[in-house]
Write a structure and sequence with these properties.
Layout: H1 20-25, H2 31-50, H3 58-69, E1 76-79, H4 85-92, E2 98-102, H5 105-114, E3 119-122, E4 136-145, H6 154-161, E5 162-173, H7 182-191, E6 195-206, E7 211-220
Parallel strand pairs: 1-2, 1-4, 2-3, 4-5
Antiparallel strand pairs: 5-7, 6-7
Helix pairs in contact: 2-5, 3-4
Length: 221
């Protein structure tokens, strides 16, 4: 997995609300460990995160942000789609053309069962994706830019995949927004005139655990 930066806070200081899986997720060392964990977690992931203890509201808030900022009529990539929580919310808002990628085959099986996706494929977001440039009107990434997961370099790949005038919506755990280099990377892309920063508002992420994230909205040049 990508390094989230020197000086980043101890991931175990972030409230996991007693979740053993989340404690493991926040200290992942490499993609193989991540794949193993999420394959194991897939069956209970939705129930655990949607309960009151975690209150994982990021998927619905991100889908609503996509609808406001980029619309749901075009082709959408759900990067790090997991079990399909974001895809389901996008489909409920009228999206009909959603592709999803994720590292975990177990998670992809759950996403397929939702019926929300056109295509699903395995992919490691810390590497370039096997898709042509300018493939999507919207790229959305929720729950992946966090401790032990994918570093800030992913934003450059999201830009590559998004058509000019398209929109990127991504959550970044607030604990590492600055220390992990995510703010600096977003600022760099803006300074290079590759994106316009629409907003980086602080929003609820896992509301039940009082954990927040930045909802990053970028317009691609």
């Amino acid at each position: 997995m990508a390094d989230t930066g020197a000086g980043a806070p101890d991931p175990l200081e972030t409230n996991t609300a007693g979740s053993a899986y989340m404690r493991r997720a926040y200290t992942l060392a490499d993609p193989d460990a991540a794949r193993e964990l999420y394959d194991e977690w897939a069956a209970s992931y939705d129930d655990e995160l949607s309960g009151d203890t975690q209150g994982y509201v990021a998927p619905v808030l991100a889908a609503q942000t996509v609808a406001r900022a980029g619309g749901v009529e075009g082709e959408i990539l759900d990067a790090g789609c997991g079990t399909g929580l974001v895809g389901v919310e996008l489909a409920a808002l009228g999206a009909t053309t959603i592709d999803g990628v994720d590292l975990s085959p177990g998670m992809l099986d759950k996403a397929k069962a939702t019926g929300a996706y056109r295509r699903l494929a395995p992919a490691d977001l810390s590497r370039a994706l096997p898709a042509p440039a300018d493939s999507y009107d919207v790229v959305v990434c929720v729950g992946t830019l966090t401790h032990g997961h994918v570093g800030p370099g992913a934003f450059g790949e999201f830009v590559r995949l998004t058509r000019p005038g398209g929109t990127i919506v991504a959550t970044v755990l607030d604990d590492i927004w600055d220390s992990g280099g995510y703010r600096a990377e977003v600022d760099r892309l803006a300074q290079m005139a590759m994106v316009e920063i629409v907003s980086t508002d602080l929003v609820d992420y896992r509301r039940g655990a009082d954990v927040s994230a930045r909802m990053v909205v970028l317009r691609v040049a």
